[in-house]
Amino acid sequence: MTDRFSFSVAATDGSARTGAISMPRGEIRTPAFMPVGTAATVKAMYPGQVRELGADVVLGNTYHLMLRPGAERVAELGGLHKFMNWPHPILTDSGGFQVMSLAQLRKLDENGVTFQSHIDGSRHVLTPERSMEIQQLLGSDIQMQFDECVKLPCSDAEAERAMRLSLRWAERSRKAFAGGPGQAVFGIVQGGAVKPLRVESAQALAGMDFPGYAIGGLAVGEPQDVMLDMIETVEPHLPANKPRYLMGVGTPDDLIESVSRGVDMFDCVMPTRAGRHGLAYTRFGRMNLRNAVHATDPRPLDAESDCPAARDYSRAYLHHLVKSGEILGMMLLTWVNLAYYQSLMAGMRAAIREQRFQDFKAKTKADWAGEKR
User: Fold this and answer.
1) Which residues are CB-neighbours of 327 under 8 A, at least 6 positions away?
2) Could you give the residue numbers annotated as active site?
3) Is 137 exposed, middle or buried, given 0-12, 13-18 or 19+ CB atoms closer than 10 A?
4) What pLDDT band is residue 151 in, cutting at 50, 70 and 90?
5) pTM (2 decimals)?
6) Was domain 6-265 assigned CATH 3.40.50.300?
7) Does the bond joining 153 to the residue before it have cis omega, within 30 degrees of 0?
8) Which of 123, 255, 331, 352 is the most exposed place for a label (fewest CB within 10 A)?
9) Would you list the domain boundaries of the chain?
10) Could you give the 3-state DSSP secondary structure of residue 108?
11) Predicted local distance difference test score (pLDDT) of residue 99
């Protein structure tokens, strides 16, 4: 434990690196995958399960929590950690992406965004200052600047407008951040798929000396090669002694390719959402348990897995649960998926330490190709 926020790199293998973020509530081993607990819950999982699978940190969301149950209420009840029974590090998103993707009748200007709730139509204003206030009320350990995220593809002019607005909001977020000992605020690189804009954004944010940096506005509709190209463009311009967080990503292949380009942190709803829709991620690749081929298959998903959900239940039973719409099916497959994601991250950390990352990457991808049904 430490009384401040710090980041150290223990080993590198090419551009891939492993290390740790140290905070008062615990250590985040990197590269790290953060399960998404949008509304103060990782869907279909107990907090203790999430921890046991190897998660050092989870993500909560400013937009959803400000609408329900309300940041002030969470603060009155002792803060987000106590509220959701997760005493370990929490990162909160700023709410900017959700305002753009979920809110109704939104109006954006220099000050911030005025919008109607997607829940009940109530009117709200979210500014950089209010976003930071909400995150402080929640008590999260890592807080994100308020930014504007545009969907790709978009025009260069639109990407530039949003990037420059996000930089101005970054300055305001940094000024408004009222973090206590050990808390940190991260800046977010924007710029669409335009390399000069991404470089300018990264350099400007580095000049603001944030404790960490996120790459935002990716995994929003662009092909993987565009995303990876943007990571390669941005990475040289971010301080090597600060953590790098790729927001909203992604598939297991996205994770391993991004780690190989120097990314330290990830979050994505994919493993939990896929689990609720009958999809399993394993070391053999992705499997759709809705498919009839699994209906009479007595084998588990992975007989050698440390995860009981992958090891102790037959594919036939999982198929039955999914086809019947049983809640247990959603729970078991979410468990399987988060277990695999954390196993993948642990495997990458070990491979980087032992200078065998490229071999690990090649073998992992070969195993994925073995069974996809």
Assistant:
1) 44
2) 93, 267
3) buried
4) confident
5) 0.96
6) no
7) yes
8) 123
9) 6-265, 275-368
10) strand
11) 74
